[in-house]
Amino acid sequence: MTPAHSAPSRVDAPPSGALAGLNEQELGRRVGELFARPGFKIPVLPVTALEVMRLSRQADMGVEKLIEVLSQDSMLAADILKLARSPVYAGLSQAKTLKEAAVRLGNAGVHRIVLEAVQRSVFRAPGLVQALEAVRKHGSAVGHLARVVSKHASLDPDFGFLCGLLHEIGLSAGLMALAADKTPKLDLAGWFTLDRAHEEVAQVICHYWKLPPELGQVLAQHHAPPDSLSAANPMVSLLVVAEFLAEQDAAGLGHLLKKATGIDLPMEPADHRIDQARSMLRLDDRAWTRLYEDAATTMASLDAEA
Ligand SMILES: [Fe+2]
Ligand SMILES: [Fe+2]
């Protein structure tokens, strides 16, 4: 992992005059327009995933019951086993069966891996596959990094992972909506439209998927300005740090999007919210150094997976 450097990342105001300065009403209209495209349906979570998520929240639920439910969906079960064997879920590379993987992951781990598998399969955007894959990779990297940051900041690592993994689902759903067009196309102006709507869209998806309202609130605020971080859920600061770390290792969204589609987001210096976020999470220099080392290990296993 290299020291901080300028990286392409989200910019607050698009360069196009036509798209600048959207008010709340206009934003709401665009979200509605996106979702009202003919042929577009809000993605649904597979029933099996919903059931697993419900069960894994019950502390006393044995892993056997989870396996029984998972086994009913062979595609999901295969995806889960494949993911469990990937380097980022270190230690599970020898797992040969779903049961072996599930026992070692535990309830919270199964919950985590189910969501990651679902995120891979639920969003489809024919014609915009590369952009969607860039968003997925970024979400996965930020999810795993958020889990690492949570441990250093004494926050719930499973909720941190969830926030990171899903923080850009508004973009995934937006790309899916664009892909419903006859000849889907994505350019810089189109990207900015998605970007301006994606926090609100994420909250809508969370609602549809019956995910915890707190998650929806975090996703809806993940681009909060620095002076709002102290009033926001601490998970927003956690996401700022995880995004920052992802950018240091080429898993920033701007970098991945450019590599996948050629769309070149305007460069801006590394996230100006990082100092505020670090102080919110009480990450002093010693903690920061240790965090950087752990983040580098996590990114290396993600790179090995790619
Ligand atoms: Fe975002
Ligand atoms: Fe992001």
Task: Give an overview in words.
- By secondary structure, this protein is an all-alpha fold.
- It folds into 2 domains: 82 residues, no CATH class; 183 residues, Orthogonal Bundle (Hypothetical protein af1432), CATH 1.10.3210.
- Helices cover 63% and strands 1% of the residues.
- The chain is built from 14 helices and 2 strands, in the order βααααααααααααβαα.
- A two-stranded antiparallel ribbon has the order 1-2.
- The protein is globular.
- The two termini are 17 Å apart.
- The N terminus is likely disordered.
- The structure holds fe (ii) ion (2 copies).
- The site of one fe (ii) ion (FE2) has 6 residues, from loops.
Topology:
Layout: E1 7-8, H1 24-35, H2 47-56, H3 63-70, H4 74-84, H5 98-122, H6 129-152, H7 157-166, H8 169-179, H9 188-208, H10 213-220, H11 234-248, H12 253-261, E2 267-268, H13 274-280, H14 285-305
Antiparallel strand pairs: 1-2
The site of one fe (ii) ion has 6 residues, from helix 6.
Please bin the fraction of helical residues.
55-70%
Per CATH, which architecture of the largest domain?
A: Orthogonal Bundle
First-to-last CA distance? 17 Å
- Taken from the alpha-carbon principal axes, the silhouette is globular
Small-molecule components bound: fe (ii) ion
Key words describing this protein structure:
single chain; 306 residues; mainly alpha; Hypothetical protein af1432; 2 domains; 2 strands; 1% strand; binds fe (ii) ion
Short description:
By secondary structure, the protein is mainly alpha-helical.
